[in-house]
Write a structure and sequence with these properties.
Chain A: InterPro entries: ATPase_NBD, Gcp-like_dom, KAE1/TsaD, TsaD. Chain A: It catalyses: L-threonylcarbamoyladenylate + adenosine(37) in tRNA = N(6)-L-threonylcarbamoyladenosine(37) in tRNA + AMP + H(+). The structure holds two protein chains of two kinds. In chain A, α5 crosses α6, α8 packs antiparallel against α9 and α9 packs parallel to α10. Chain A is about 40% helix and about 20% strand. By secondary structure, chain A is of the alpha/beta class. The longest helix of chain A has 27 residues. In chain B, β4, α2 and β5 form a beta-alpha-beta unit. In chain B, α1 packs parallel to α2 and α3 packs across α6. Chain B is α/β, with parallel strands linked by helices. In chain B, the strands form two sheets. Chain B has a five-stranded mixed sheet, sandwiched between helices. Chain B folds into two domains: about 110 residues, 2-Layer Sandwich (Nucleotidyltransferase, domain 5), CATH 3.30.420.40; about 80 residues, ATPase, nucleotide binding domain (Nucleotidyltransferase, domain 5, 2-Layer Sandwich), CATH 3.30.420.40. Helix content of chain B is about 30%, strand content about 25%.
Chain lengths: ~350, ~220
């Protein structure tokens, strides 16, 4: 195996995207993704059983498509990596079972890896050079996390995360309340463009002194998020207009909701970077496409002297390329493969970068 | 001479190697648990291939149970079988998993003129189908409460779990079969006879028999377009 530039095939199935990506070292060769998103639209959120059914049908065609794009045969692959968690259990099992079959049938080593760390690992692709230690902010339909990355392959620490809904979930639920459809992120982002973000002052979760404490004496939830109170506040606001027979100011509510989410996420992330002495922040996850999040985060990072790294959007949403990218780092670092016996872990902690 | 690899995960993970020409079982592995298909399946396949010096690309084909069965486990076997077929470039044949139970019934000394096989569908229901004594399916597959089964001998783990309800409904649960779950060896037996009879088994679509259970939320129905 070429340890410096291993060819790694990555498989992702933790939510509603079936992804197969191929990298050679830090170079992305293919990134085939099949999404079942359209099938979830009428439900206003991801239905795990529908996602799992779609993974089964999509896997082999997506694999074929990735190999075609990369112009490689399975013989050319050095190792296989697959998301073992966190994610939807039934969805994860389709990808992991397929990955094990692929590894066994080809005789290639298999790595069961952490989905969240893969969102960070994608940052090394396409010539981006990351410093030895950096921070990451992951925001998507399934996660909202602040991470400290000392080594992609053996030292990742969770600084904070949501204690209830993920940010993307809050977007989906609010979009439903406002009749804006699914997925909520782009729908609210669009509606918010015509709205006044100061029209309503919605709560910033876990921002009270009793949760936050001080740098010297941090509170329990200093770096954590909560979006359930925000969702309730938006619902009350909508009800208020409806009860008075007034038209609901959708654009203003969307803009004010978005401001509340983005304000709390960016301020907590930037503060965490400062307190950890981290000079670089990588943004990942599907909500990275949100214009207001990028705008405010960029501004706050600049004033704090922090370099912000945002991978291309196609690498921020769930995909196989990010799994392959982390897999290639693991191979290059000589980390032992996971074998064929590991189980999926729907709540795999970030400290568990690879299973063994 | 070569073997078929048979996989069924409609209940516990069950894997068998079956002789291509004689249809006889070479070897098999079965899990004692109903929820560890992801962990055990590939290891069982590897063990069988290694033990018998069988190369994957030299297999006569792969036979896979398409259910019905609990969805998550079922998919583990289906995606693995399709992937093996893709990599080794060998045909994958889909067989309904209840046929494996019917084949097991046909082994016994006196096979009833008509009978039912039933597996565990959870949620107080069984997956079931009706067969004649030649093993031909004459009704089903269905998913329902055990009390809805016809008044005839019932074989399989479904009969064991719901023996009382079946008796009350006038059916005859057969005690010797109370532990029977879909077995890859019996599944392969059905596949080989179907293939010999010229049947097309190329469809490996899962037999879910149930919808995804997803409900359109009330507020989506009234949402503005
Ligand atoms: Zn993700």
């Amino acid at each position: 195996m070429r340890f410096n530039e291993p060819v790694v095939l990555g498989i992702e199935s933790s939510c509603d995207e079936t992804g197969v990506g191929i990298v050679r070292g830090n170079k992305l060769l293919a990134n085939a993704v099949s999404s079942s998103m359209d099938e979830h639209v009428r439900f206003g959120g991801v239905i795990p059983e529908i996602a799992a059914r779609a993974h089964l049908e999509a896997f082999v065609p997506t694999l074929q498509s990735a190999l075609d794009t990369a112009e490689l045969a399975l013989d050319d692959i050095d190792a296989i990596a697959v998301t073992s968690g966190p994610g939807l259990a039934g969805a994860l099992m389709v990808g992991v079972s397929a990955a094990k079959a692929l590894a066994l049938a080809t005789g290639k080593p298999l790595y069961g890896i952490n989905h969240l760390v893969a969102h960070v690992g994608v940052g090394v692709l396409e010539g981006t050079v990351l410093p030895p230690t950096f921070g990451a902010l992951l925001v998507s339909g399934g996660h909202t996390e602040i991470l400290k990355v000392t080594s992609l392959t053996n030292d990742v620490q969770l600084l904070g995360s949501t204690i209830d809904d993920a940010a993307g979930e809050a977007y989906d639920k609010t979009a439903r309340l406002l009749g804006l459809g699914y997925p909520g992120g782009p729908a609210i982002d669009k509606a918010a463009k015509d709205g006044n973000r100061k029209a309503f002052r919605f709560p910033r979760g876990l921002s009270l002194p009793k949760f936050v404490g001080s740098a010297a004496n941090p509170g329990k939830h200093r770096n954590n998020f909560s979006f359930s109170g925000l969702k309730t506040a938006v619902a009350r606001c909508v009800e208020h207009f409806e009860a008075n027979g007034e038209e609901v100011p959708v654009a203003d509510i969307a803009a004010s909701f978005q401001e509340a989410v983005v304000d709390v996420i960016t301020s907590k992330a930037v503060r965490a970077m400062q307190e950890q002495g981290l000079k670089t922040l990588l943004l990942g996850g599907g909500v990275a496409a949100n214009t207001r999040l990028r705008e405010l985060l960029a501004a706050r990072c600049t004033s704090a002297g922090i370099e912000l790294v945002v991978p291309p959007f196609s690498l921020c949403t769930d995909n196989g390329g990010m799994v392959a990218a982390l897999g290639a780092q693991l191979v290059a670092d000589g980390v032992a493969p996971s074998g064929l016996d590991f189980a999926t872990d729907s709540s795999q902690p970030v400290t568990q970068i690879t299973l063994r | 001479m070569s073997n078929y690899l048979a996989i069924d995960t409609s209940a516990n993970a069950s894997v068998a190697l079956v002789d291509e020409t004689t249809g006889l079982l070479v070897d098999k592995r079965v899990s004692s648990k109903g929820n560890d298909q992801t962990e055990t399946l590939s290891a069982y396949v590897k063990e069988l291939l290694d033990t018998h010096g069988q190369k994957g690309q030299d297999l006569a084909g792969i036979i896979v149970g398409v259910g019905p069965g609990p969805f998550t486990g079922l998919r583990v076997g289906l995606v693995a079988a399709r992937t093996f077929g893709f990599v080794w470039q060998v045909p994958v044949h889909g067989v309904m998993s209840l046929h494996a139970l019917a084949e097991q019934v046909l082994e016994s000394s006196d096979v009833p003129a008509e009978f039912v096989v039933a597996s565990d569908a959870r949620r107080k229901e069984v997956y079931w189908a009706r067969y004649d004594n030649s093993g031909t399916m004459v009704g089903g597959p269905h998913v329902s409460a055990a009390s809805a089964l016809p008044a005839m001998p019932v074989f399989g783990v479904g009969a064991g779990i719901y023996a009382e309800q079946l008796e009350e409904a006038g059916a005859k649960p057969m005690p010797e079969s109370f532990e029977w779950i879909a077995d890859a060896g019996f599944l392969a037996r059905r596949a080989l006879s179907d293939l010999a009879g010229g049947k097309d088994l190329s469809d490996t679509s899962p037999q879910y028999l149930r919808e995804s259970d997803a409900q359109i939320p009330a507020f989506m129905k009234q949402a503005k377009a």
